[in-house]
Design goal:
Layout: E1 2-11, E2 15-18, H1 19-23, H2 30-37, E3 41-44, H3 51-66, E4 75-79, H4 90-98, E5 105-108, H5 114-128, E6 133-140, H6 165-172, H7 175-178, E7 184-193, E8 198-206, E9 214-215, H8 229-233, E10 240-241, H9 243-265, E11 274-277, H10 282-292, H11 303-306, H12 313-323, E12 332-339, E13 343-350
Parallel strand pairs: 4-5, 4-6, 11-12
Antiparallel strand pairs: 1-7, 2-3, 6-7, 8-13, 9-10, 12-13
Helix pairs in contact: 3-4, 9-10
Length: about 350
């Protein structure tokens, strides 16, 4: 029995926000953002549109692509770091919105590595015989991290008011992070089938000693109350990141994980057909590509159009590669990611 991806789908919000648009709100430019990240534009959700809403769109598309109905799904795994609510998780909200039958839903929080961890869970569920068809969703709405009260409403056409100099200065304080993120969702249907195609070796890692390298210190249940206006005003509800340390870890640990799954499968790295890397930063993607010694055509990317959509980057990228004809039968495809935790790993998939 192999775990086979039989359907993919994406859910993208309507607002396309360019680097030029961001430059109206903060001290930045298209060149500044492109040089540091490779990003040209990203999608922003509608006000009131959450990660579950985008996940529902992606899930419906993935089920339709697989030729399945809601009654065919046996379990749901939902990966996100931006849930609609503190409780419950997105799983039951998606179940209700899709009209799924009484099936278990699993909410996981491995941030940028969420889709990889979801693949591991889905594969284990199927290999154990517990479930035959698993719906795996990765979805994020990052825009609530951002200081929407400081003029961001103009980006999606809610307001035409001029941005004050004070607002522009305040927005600039967080530009190193806010320019990187976008909103979006991707989903896959994974089925157990008796065929050569399917998931191969998966290797996952966690190093909690690196937790402070990429974290968010506000909204903490170590505090009483767990969130305050002072935390928000101090920017503690925004992620903080040591960019140099994240870059070093990413270009070292992701290639190691790719080599691990290749060794386990008896596949040479240079013979891989595609390596799909978490879309956090084009410089990281290029660094991993160089470390693996692979040509650019084997390492596709779409970060320039979507930015970092965290748990959604890999399923969105895989879906687009399928749609573009880059994924063909008999290929060896590797997914790899690294994110807050630190969590990282890789998974080999035979198409």
């Amino acid at each position: 029995m192999r775990s086979v991806i039989t359907g993919t789908g994406i859910g993208l919000p309507p607002h396309v926000v360019t680097n030029e648009a961001l430059s109206k709100l903060m001290d930045t430019s298209d060149e500044w953002i492109r040089v540091r990240s490779g990003i040209q534009e990203r999608r922003y959700a509608e006000p009131g549109q959450g990660s579950t809403d985008l996940g529902v769109i992606a899930a419906r598309n993935a089920m339709a692509d697989a030729g399945l109905t809601t009654g065919d799904i046996d379990a749901v795994v939902f990966a996100t770091m931006t849930p609609d609510r503190m409780l419950p998780g997105n799983g039951p909200l998606l179940q209700a919105a899709l009209g799924l039958r009484d099936i278990p839903t699993f909410d996981i929080r491995q941030q940028c590595s969420g889709f990889l961890y979801g693949l591991e869970l889905a594969d284990l569920f199927i290999q154990s015989g517990r479930y035959r068809r698993v719906l795996l969703v990765g979805a994020e709405v990052h825009t609530p991290f951002m200081p929407w009260h400081l003029g961001w409403d103009t980006l999606i056409g809610q307001s035409t008011r001029a941005i004050t100099e004070a607002e522009r200065a305040e927005n600039t304080l967080s530009r190193d992070r806010t320019v990187l993120f976008g909103d979006g969702a991707g989903a896959v249907v994974i089925e157990g089938r008796e065929e050569p195609a399917g998931l191969g070796p998966i290797r996952l890692h966690t190093d909690g000693t690196g937790a402070e390298v990429l974290t968010m210190r506000g909204v903490s249940f170590k505090r009483r109350p767990f969130v305050t206006l002072e935390q928000i005003q101090a920017g503690e509800t925004l992620p903080v990141m040591s960019g140099k340390e994240v870059f070093k870890a990413a270009v070292t640990l992701m290639p190691q994980a790719v080599r691990e799954v290749c060794d386990a499968a008896g596949v040479a790295v240079e013979s891989l057909d595609l390596v799909l890397i978490h879309q956090a930063n084009l410089r990281i993607i290029e660094g991993v590509q160089k470390a693996l010694g692979l040509p650019p055509e084997k390492v596709p990317h779409n970060i320039e159009r979507y930015g970092n959509t965290t748990a959604a980057t890999l399923p969105i990228l895989f879906h687009e590669c399928r749609a573009q004809g880059l994924v063909r039968p008999g290929m060896n495809v590797v997914f790899t990611a690294l994110g807050s935790g630190l969590h990282w790993g890789a998974a080999l998939y035979r198409t």
